[in-house]
Amino acid sequence: MPFCKGCGHTHVLRKLNEAMLQLQLTPSDIALVTDIGCIGLADMMFVPVHTVHTTHGRSTAFATGIQIADAVLAQSALKTIVLIGDGGAMIGLQHLVNAALLNVDVTVLLCNNFLFGMTGGQNSAFSPNDFITPTTPNGNIIPPIDMCRMMEASGAEFSVRALATQKGLSDTIARAIMHPGFSLVEIVELCTEHATERNDLSGSKLAQVIESQGQRLGDIVIRQTRKSFGTMYAAKNPRKPVPPSLTEKTIVPSFQSTLNEQVGIVLAGSAGERVQSSAKKLCDAAIVSGVYCTQKNDNPVTQGSGFSLSEVILSNEEIFYTAIDVADVAIVVSQDGLTEVKENGLLERMTSSSLLMLDANLAVPETVAMVEQYPYRKEFGGDKAALAAVKAYVRKTGILPEGAL
Ligand code: SF4
Ligand SMILES: [Mg+2]
After folding, report:
1. Helix 275-288 to helix 382-397 angle, to the nearest 10 degrees?
2. How far, in Å, from the CA of 173 to the mean position of ligand 1?
3. Which residue lies with its CA nearest to atom 6 of ligand 1?
4. Are strands 263-270 and 307-315 parallel, antiparallel or unpaired?
5. Domain of 360: which CATH number?
6. Which candidate, 83, 322, 395, 399, has a CA 20 to 30 Å from the CA of 199?
């Protein structure tokens, strides 16, 4: 375990593992979604299941999306489990409320050790009264959140508070996982690194702390009156069968490529001048020639102004890394495009064997790449310059038959 000696997270992960084994779930039917914080180190302990390590406080939102996608688009076989700390739960409170309101079939294991452990023990919204932390050196004066009751008020039908060390925790977790709808298990535990240093606290005193703040351990609510969001959504929006015409649409290569090795082509110009659609045509030509390709587009948020850029990789092998670090060729047909490839460092990373195909009205930038200029814009107009340059590249290299393009 990657945690400090005596850390409550160790117990929680052991019990979660036991619960998974007890339920005999197929590992590929489990999605474990972890939050930031020490508990987020859990992913690496659960190798056979799907894991997603997310941003701070947002794990419940990611899990909600995963679960709804599975319920609506797939077989609804996935068990989605969130591991979040009290710090994350405080930051992402609305996501928990939303998940409970939706009654999405997600299980949240909230590991409450009363503080932000990973960042030095600062107080959280779960810190007990008088709790001493680096940020509450004279003792906390804000009443701690009662998450179990807050979830109940948000419509949750499974809300339980337990101690990390208590007997039967794995059964509680297993029951939560099998509950058909949102479930929360708040697991009260000890951060041995920060909580015990400044407070008179030990594992055996945790139950007392909970009681002293007017909260209680055990089942806060367990009932089953609501259907889960996924079930209701799927019932209201039945999936239409995919028309045979779509399932049968397969591209059969009808041209032959002469591509020897993978090439990375960057096409850069101005928004609205068909840069990305010209790149798409190059990809289409590659596909009908039996070549693997990827296309990655970029443009400013303004969409209709500024640069427009596409990165296209063509390869005889499957492509698993879709970015172009060093372009074999950069086709630049406008000043917007040139400014962008300068600013994003692409030009600087080109080597002496790279080729820069530049519109003739652009000033040649400082580069070690070979430069070729042609008046694409003047000859073909702004909106056809990119496609004309692509065509020139295909003709020059012969990597794909012109007919395919
Ligand atoms: S800092 Fe606290 S929460 Fe983090 S691993 Fe150590 S004991 Fe556990
Ligand atoms: Mg914590």
Report:
1. 30
2. 21
3. 4
4. antiparallel
5. 3.40.920.10
6. 83
Asked whether the whole model's pTM tops 0.85, one would answer no
Residue 64: give its domain's CATH number: 3.40.50.970
Residues of the chain with pLDDT below 50 are none
Using a 10 angstrom Cβ sphere, with 0-12 exposed, 13-18 middle and 19 or more buried, the burial of residue 296 is middle
- How far does the centroid of ligand 1 lie from the alpha carbon of residue 1, in Å? 11
- Residue 209 exposed, middle or buried by CB count within 10 Å (0-12, 13-18, 19+): middle
Q: What is the pLDDT of residue 176?
A: 98
Best of 112, 118, 189 to mutate for ligand 1, by most ligand atoms within 8 A of CB? 118
The answer to whether position 248 is within a domain reads no
pLDDT at residue 239, rounded to an integer: 80
User: Which ligand is closest in space to the CA of residue 11?
Assistant: 1
Question: Same structural domain for residues 268 and 232?
Answer: no
Q: What is the DSSP string of 177-192?
A: HHSSS-EEEEEE---T
Ligand nearest to the CA of 12: 1
Residue 246: predicted pLDDT: 64
CB 31 within 8 A of CB 74: no
Count of domains for the chain: 2
Quote the domain boundaries for residue 374: 263-397
In a domain, 314, yes or no: yes
